[in-house]
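Sample pair:
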Amino acid sequence: MNRYFKLFIAFLAVLLLCGCGKQPAADIPDTNGDGKLTCTLEIRCDVLLEHLGELPPEKAALVPENGILLEITEVEFTGGQSVFDVFRSTLREKKIHFEYIDAQAYGSAYIEGIGNLYEFDCGSQSGWMVCVNGEFLGLGCSGYTLADGDAISFRYTCDLGKDLGAGYEK
């Protein structure tokens, strides 16, 4: 029994020295030096202000006067989290309605609607797009792993992103 007790104590010592549980990702530098990883998140549908007449009246009433559903908000995250992880937790915390499809075939989440404004509400080329640090992503929001200081913006488009400066080339 004494031998097992010593092994148990040695095992506990190894756990304490090595640590256990989730460690912060070493490859994501803390640019503020405060020990926290942060990013910002905003949600805008201001392009709809120029298209209110094209929306059904019940949808037009959902568009804020300034077109902003979520002001720029600083959010803490842990290493390895994606844009979608921060989006989902922040919107749940702020009680902002959203819907998404977990597109397993593409390994990503697809945002269908935010604030009860959905894809196709303003025509066949309308919906939500996301950019990080001013660049529109060429992948789904759950496919982008955040870095400290990233700026995330979800934007509503009425023209496949052309009205946001991010149109697709044919």
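DSSP finds three helices and eight strands in the chain.
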